[in-house]
Amino acid sequence: MAPAHDLKRVLQSAAETHRPAVDPADDLARAQTAARARTRRRFRAGLAGVATVAVLAVGAVVVTDRDQPAAPGQAQGADHGTGHGTGTGTGHGIELVSKRLDATPYTFDLTPKGWAVQGQDEFGVTIAPTDGSVSDSPYDFEGKLVIMFDPRPPGGRPVDLDGRRFWITGDSGYTTISTRTLPGEPDGAVRIQYPDDTGWTEDTMLAFTASVHVGPGAQHGVG
Amino acid sequence: MRDDERSTEFVAFTRAHRTDLVRTATLLCAGDEAFAEDVVQTTLTRLYLSWSRVRRADSALAYARRSLTHAFIDEARRAHRRRETTLADPANALAVEPATPGSDPELREIVLSALASLGPRQRAVVVLRHWHDLDVAETAKALGCSPGTVKSQNARALAHLRDVLGAADHDLILEVS
Q1: How far apart are CA A135 and CA A140, in angstroms?
Q2: Buried b (16+ CB within 10 A) or exposed e, A93-125
Q3: What is the pLDDT of residues B56-108, one digit of tens each?
Q4: Which residues of A fall within a CB distance of 8 Å from B46?
Q5: What is the pTM of this model?
Q6: Is A78 a residue whose pLDDT tops 80?
Q7: Which of A194, B10, B104, B173 is least surrounded, with the fewest CB atoms within 10 Å of its CB?
Q8: Nearest alpha-carbon partner for B74 in B115, B113, B25, B109
Q9: ipTM of the complex model
Q10: How many CB atoms lie within 10 A of CB A182?
């Protein structure tokens, strides 16, 4: 009769390694070298950014959220419809600019200032801050927005905004806002996962989620 | 946060948890030790660069494991692009392993070969779900996909592992958690 194994024990056995321990000082030296390189990159990017900001300031309608960043799934004020006026930046929150962000087949009417599309396909989009604080890989989702298209109905705490319903859930450092696609778009739910510690408030998350359009060619995530 | 404070904490964390990360990477990389070491080094560097996030995490080790998984998937995709023109069908590679079951080293080789024949994300699902005991929702969040995707990937991966281990005269008991 064949021997039987439970998966956990099998994986335990397979994970065993007899490599000698590595001195943490080597890891530290490697990491400090990377940190210095990043500082140099940011310095150069900062110089370029000064010029870019001057250009963007002309003609752009800035949507500013005056609130402080929200805790996961926490409401911030009853009037969610006032976030689209012009205003000044707080220095901490996310600024949404009324500029089209294209990540075909997904498009957004608003663009979060200082963020850019990092990866896109028919199943979703990854949007990352451009300050170099996160991985360059679109498959690494730490600290980034992840836009998903899902066949399942939305769930969570309901919030109504401009006649449209959104659902908010939050845990483990992320807040997810879902809404049904608009009439004429492929049927399903759009979900956007926001990292909690990057300046997004509930108002800016709702405004940005409301601005997404799902175009032809978008496909549901498998499952 | 001062650099020397960050460095002190980083060294303490690395000393305490590097072995755990290497073991996880060994599974994710299906026994390719050089690849696993690359992934661990990449992960530790990323952790250092975002150490404030590590400090704020509920569990620094859990945060590190998630980062490790992302680093692995990232590197695996690049590696796949580099290797896809030279490697044979990985499923066929299982056949060349002489399976003489009965000892743990043999079982280890069979399991690592079976893991190697899974796609990177399927392998990550197996490791997160069955090695780190994350639930479906936690796994989905770590991988940035839907819970449905985790379930389907997990089901396919386990079916494949059962087939491979069964062919090698081992049975696999799957405990549903």
Answers
A1: 6
A2: bbbbbeeebebebbebebbbbbbebbbbeebbb
A3: 888 999 899 989 998 888 777 665 544 443 333 433 333 334 434 445 677 78
A4: 135
A5: 0.53
A6: no
A7: B173
A8: B25
A9: 0.77
A10: 12
Tokens 């780190």 appear where?
B132
Contact A119, A139 (CB under 8 A): yes
Gap between the Cα atoms of A210 and A214, Å rounded = 11
On whether the CB atoms of residues B174 and A7 are closer than 8 A, the answer is yes
Q: What mean pLDDT is reported for chain A?
A: 76
| Cα B104 to Cα B120: distance, rounded to the nearest angstrom | 24
Q: Are A223 and B74 an interchain contact pair (Cβ–Cβ within 8 Å)?
A: no
Q: Do B141 and A193 touch (CB under 8 A)?
A: yes
Of residues B33, B34, B39, B24, the one with CA closest to residue B123:
B24
**Which pLDDT value is given to residue B78?**
65
Distance, in Å, from the CA atom of B43 to the CA atom of A68, rounded to the nearest integer, reads 31
Residue B45 to residues A25, A27, A187, B71, B75, Cα–Cα distance (Å):
12, 7, 42, 11, 14
Contact residues, chain A, for B150 at CB < 8 Å: 223
Tokens for A200, please give them. Answer: 């997004």
Chain B residues within 8 A of A148 when measuring between CB atoms: 145-146
Task: Please choose, from the candidates A179, A116, A180, the residue with its C-alpha nearest in 3D space to the C-alpha of residue A145.
Answer: A116
Measured CA to CA in angstroms, residue A124 lies from A129, A132, B130 at distances of: 17, 22, 27
**Would an 8 Å CB–CB cutoff place A183 in contact with chain B?**
no
Listed by number, the residues of chain A in 43-102 with a beta carbon closer than 8 Å to a beta carbon of chain B are none
